[in-house]
Amino acid sequence: MRHGEVHNPEGILYGRLPGYRLSDRGEQQAKLVAEFLAGRDVVHVVASPLQRAQQTAEPIGATFQVDVATDERLIESENRFEGLKVSVGDGALSSPKHWPKLWNPLRPSWGEPYLQIAHRMLGAAERARAAAAGHEAVCVSHQLPIWTLRRFLEGKPMWHDPRRRQCSLASLTSLVFRGEELVRIAYVEPAGATDPKVTGA
User: Fold this and answer.
1) Where do the domains of the chain lie, and which CATH numbers do they carry?
2) Per-residue pLDDT tens digits for 77-106
3) CB-count exposure of residue 78 (10 Å: 0-12, 13-18, 19+)
4) Which residues fall within 8 angstroms of residue 77, CB to CB, at 6 or more apart?
5) Is the separation of the CB atoms in 109 and 103 below 8 Å?
6) What is the maximum alpha-carbon separation in the chain?
């Protein structure tokens, strides 16, 4: 699951910075997903250590009466533009001093390598699957890590256009296993769709 909307009036790329909590809308999105999942066989809930992910997981943990665990591998990806505005036209990307960070979009050169993200996210997913063996687990993470893992598992290139990610706020990207074998990836938006071109991670 991707976390809900974040209170970010400055419009910066907050990444792993502390203190970024859910907005009122984000809290409502988390509750909608908890209601959507009610009746499912969830026995394990785990989240990124960042505040917005922990807050998103809380109503789900409460619904299933389980404590929310933390897995560092679910954390947001590292990004060298953290703390800056990166919107088109008036953001950091328009400044020549930042252009050297953009030399290789396939890696990417401005942050954590895609393959590293995919491997740590897969490790977190495998741990959650084992913890919920025979049942269901919910992992709360962030847009780029979730999308990177999905493309990795689907055998697609991990470099991509961020504007085309299918990973709305509070969406669920489900890995369906038969035993230890991944048999299907499903996607649903219980809190509605959000535009990746407008809403940040």
Assistant:
1) 24-188 (3.40.50.1240)
2) 999 888 888 765 556 666 777 667 777 887
3) middle
4) 15, 111, 112, 117, 142, 144, 145, 148
5) yes
6) 53
Q: Confirm if 25 and 5 have CB atoms less than 8 A apart.
A: yes
pTM exceeds 0.90, yes or no = yes
| HEC secondary structure over 122-153 | HHHHHHHHHHCCCCEEEEEECHHHHHHHHHHH
Q: What confidence tens digit (pLDDT) does each residue in 30-56 have? A: 999 999 999 999 999 999 999 999 999
Amino acid in position 35: E
- Strand partners for 176: 184
DSSP H/E element including 84: none
- Please say whether the beta carbons of 146 and 173 come within 8 A: yes
In a 10 Å sphere around its CB, with 0-12 CB exposed, 13-18 middle and 19+ buried, how is residue 18 labelled? exposed
Q: What is the pLDDT of residue 81?
A: 86
What backbone torsions phi and psi does residue 55 show, to the nearest 5 degrees? Answer: -65, -40
The secondary element (H helix, E strand) that includes residue 57 is helix 51-64
Contact 80, 110 (CB under 8 A): yes
Chain position carrying tokens 């689907």: 154
Rounded Cα distance between 166 and 151, Å, is 11
